[in-house]
TrEMBL record:
It comes from Lingula anatina (Brachiopod). It comes from the Eukaryota. Residues 259-298 form the SOCS box domain. Signal peptide: none annotated. ANK repeats lie at residues 95-127, 203-227. This is Uncharacterized protein LOC106152077. SMART domains: ANK, SOCS_box.
Amino acid sequence: MNGYAEDGDYIVDTWLLDTDFSFEFGEHQDLPKLNKEQLRFILAVKAGKIKYVAAKIAEGFDVNFCTAWRGNPLCTAIENSRLDIAKLLLDSGAHTENALHLACLRSNIDLVSMLLSYGANPNAVGHGVGEDIPACFIFALHVAQPLTIVLKLIEAGADVNAMCCQTLWTPLHLVCNSPAHSADIVQAILRAGGMAHHRDKHTGWTPLQHAAMRSDRKIIQLLIAAGYPIHREVMPLKDLHPSLLSDLELINFLKQAWSNPYSLKKLCAALIRKCLGGCKMQDKLLQLPLPKYLMKYVALEVLL
């Protein structure tokens, strides 16, 4: 029979408990099979039945048995936002492996704060079925967490220059590449010691090159102000959208950042070529929506 029935102070699926079964989550053979007592406990955690959970813990029930995806009852509590039960499990010695990743995935600052206060490691690698999950801080950036959670993880000692195991990007590469992240998160990572000039080991790109692809003026300014050796090369900014040539604030900022004025001229030339699609025709060049001061600044003989 399907449905729910009261059993003490918790709710269980009667058809599951009345069947001689070995319950398995998912289709993977390496996932654990739960006995009836473990299933009762998981269902009680999921339903928020703290009295039953507390009674079982008082009897010496193991709170670290493995559930789906290498989790434990604490992960179930976090998945269902059961803050009170999560605290009870932590007080009873629950392991925090994978729990912080789940709290970040749920964007729950209260759970994140509580787990960190119990010693959860923001640099710990999570474990799934068949593959490892990136360190929690990198994972949090992957799933576009808000600034409050990012700051909390940094405060707890997150490595702001850790490498992502899959893309070999640093946290700055991740946030500069994704439009879901704000300049405030970039600034928080930079203040914590994030390296603005670091090149990833896979493509050799810097965070600035990713920011240029997004044409995010504020992030570009933050990276340059943080010490990126902008006077040495033009290439990282070659992918800026040509429309930014009419951004007076950005152009003036770049003028001040570059010690060599010819570098800015080369950048403008590269962007104009990109806008023209490689065609070096003066009439098309003059039709571009560029301010007069910039038209004079860019040497036409470089282009034509």
